[in-house]
Write a structure and sequence with these properties.
Rossmann fold; 2 domains; 10 helices; 16 strands; 22% strand; globular
Amino acid sequence: MINRKPPINIQSSDCKYYQNDFIYDAPKNINWVRKGITLTNLFYIQKSVKLLAESHRNAIHIQNTPLIKRFAYTLRNAIGYKEKFTEKGVWALNPWAAYYYHWIAETLPRLFSVKDQIKNRYIILPKRFQNQTYIEPSLKIFNFKGVKYIDKNIVVDNLLYVSELADTGNFNNQITQEFHSYLRTYFEDYNLNSSSSERIYITRKKATVRRVVNEDELLQCIKKYNFKEIIFEDLSWFEQVKLVYNAKIIIGPHGAGLTNAIFMAQGTSLLELRPKGHFFFNCFYTMADAINLNYYYQTCDVKHPHVDPHGTDLIVNISELENNLTQIIDAQQ
């Protein structure tokens, strides 16, 4: 059972948004090795014509599929053409794994949890994962035999399935802490202790949603506190890691860029700018708690109040931002 500290600057009126995540019971992790497992591009896992339970968790819409259609699908996979993969493989994906947060915060920790068992195995990924420039560089933190990209159904002679460590937006604190320590130690060897700024603002100006409408005003404010504006889309994955590795404070709107806080040292601080009324996913709060970051938040008005707040732009209260920055900086001194 995980008991989490509330955000440091929690307002009593906002407790209702966070309280469901104050306590979390992580699922039991059950990994297995089986022979003759069929993997599909749709993240289904089956043995002969039987769809395995792991597919039900990974592909939630399958529960709404009529049984006859489900059987027809698995039968087609069972008797249709499949590539045979005779090497040992490992599968540790959910349907969102190609997206940055899900890859860094969910898939890599799953692989870390079995890192000593994958040295003689191929990591199996859908071919479209090759389009994501951070996937292959990030896999270099592990020792494994190779990557097997698939664009059709395959049967794996010997497959290690790695179960999910937590529900999406949550974390298994013990494994996440061990993974965080592993990352910090791994990147120590890359001499990252020099050029990066200690205070970073992650802009979403190149994104399509959750941009800051009054960002010029925001930048003028944070400049007084020696913050550096960063556009992660312009950087390689290693350059992103290098920038956040020594950061003492990171600020940014809710979005994939905040995932990089996982590379920060324990005891540093994260300030998340969030749209008012949207607390369905507290993933950066739960991540910060798992790796012992000081988590702060600020709710922001939205540009289009009648649109899903997750999909519109933010208007940051600069006076409130300055108060939060003062609180964070004073706490670090």
